[in-house]
Design a protein that fits this description.
- Helix content is 71%, strand content 6%.
- It is mostly helical.
- A two-stranded antiparallel sheet has the order 1-2.
- Helix 4 packs antiparallel against helix 5 and helix 7 runs parallel beside helix 9.
- The N and C termini lie far apart (46 Å).
């Protein structure tokens, strides 16, 4: 049990960013006999699991079911353990067994929805995810409910997989509103807005996502494509410059960003990006100038505000 908790805890804090690309965020409460604990599952591109740990964790959860087969919490804990290790068919099968005896158990719908959404069955994911969301959406503090946020995210993702961006918008908006720091949900909401050709809102979401994750390559790529559609080549150069930055091609990034800044000296994000590139190159004096320029154009620019603090501290050493 201690090893299981340590695995989950390590996953929670191992990533430099809480959210980027596809993430499964599962909050579970397990009550087994006299033992009760709550924790979170985080899946992201940084997480990796050693095979012996995985096998042991699954074996412990399966043994717990054999020891107490009539306990729905223990069976759901097993289904969530399968979910943790991407055994989506097993997770769904276990959850369906619980559902037969406990049809009002909302955790079942969560496991089913997440399993279907991640196993190539987006249409089957819609109903269970919506039922789970409806059961919790009126909570006083939905921002603290990580299961609710994850369910809303995957409901939006399922609609996107089905080619229905107009229906994906509300779930993604909820995921963003309830989290407010979920860069992946922001990016996905941007793609949904792009799907209905609401390009201004899409750009706002891509910009928000890259504020939280400054090397978010996919968001910059989508941003560049959107500026192309809007016939804004100079701003597209900014986005492509930040794509180069995300790939650690700093000289290529600098060339594109300086070109963008020369053509659009009124765009603060470009100068904030130049500051990041100079900082990555170790040129702190020029990084400071770039950040100061960004702040003159936009005193609330988060990237420049944080960046100039780092640079000034570095220049004092």
């Amino acid at each position: 049990m201690k090893n299981f908790f340590k695995l989950l805890n390590d996953r929670l804090f191992s990533s430099a960013y809480q959210v980027q690309r596809v993430i499964i965020l599962v909050a579970i409460l397990i009550v087994a006999g006299s033992v009760s604990f709550g924790t979170y599952y985080y899946f992201d591109r940084y997480a990796s699991t050693q095979q012996p740990v995985q096998e042991k964790t699954i074996a412990e959860a399966e043994q717990a079911v054999r020891d107490d087969p009539g306990n729905p919490d223990v069976r759901l804990a097993l289904s969530e353990t399968y979910l943790l290790y991407s055994r989506f068919d097993d997770a769904a099968a276990q959850a369906l067994q619980v559902q037969k005896e406990y049809p009002d158990e909302m955790r079942v719908y969560f496991v089913l929805g997440i399993s279907y959404a991640n196993n190539g069955n987006p249409e089957m994911a819609l109903e269970p995810l919506q039922k789970f969301i409806d059961s919790r959406k009126d909570e006083e503090m939905p921002g603290l409910d990580k299961q609710l946020q994850a369910a809303s995210y995957y409901l939006g993702e399922s609609y996107m997989q089905l080619g229905q961006p107009e229906k994906a918008i509300q779930p993604f908006e909820n995921a963003v509103d309830w989290s407010q720091t979920d860069a992946d949900a922001m990016y996905k909401l941007g793609t949904a807005y792009s799907g209905i050709k609401d390009y201004d809102k899409a750009l706002n979401m891509y910009i928000a996502a890259t504020t939280f994750v400054p090397d978010y390559l996919e968001a910059y790529d989508a941003m560049a494509a959107t500026y192309d559609i809007l016939n804004e080549p100079d701003l597209a150069n900014y986005a492509r410059g930040m794509m180069a930055y995300s790939k650690k091609d700093y000289q290529g990034a600098l060339d594109l960003l300086l070109k963008s800044a020369q053509a659009r000296p009124d765009f603060p994000l470009t100068f904030a990006g130049i500051g990041r590139v100079y900082e990555a190159l170790g040129d702190l004096p020029n990084a400071k100038i770039a950040y100061e320029t960004a702040l003159k154009l936009d005193p609330n620019n988060f990237t420049a505000s944080i960046g100039i603090q780092r640079v000034e501290a570095g220049l004092k050493k």
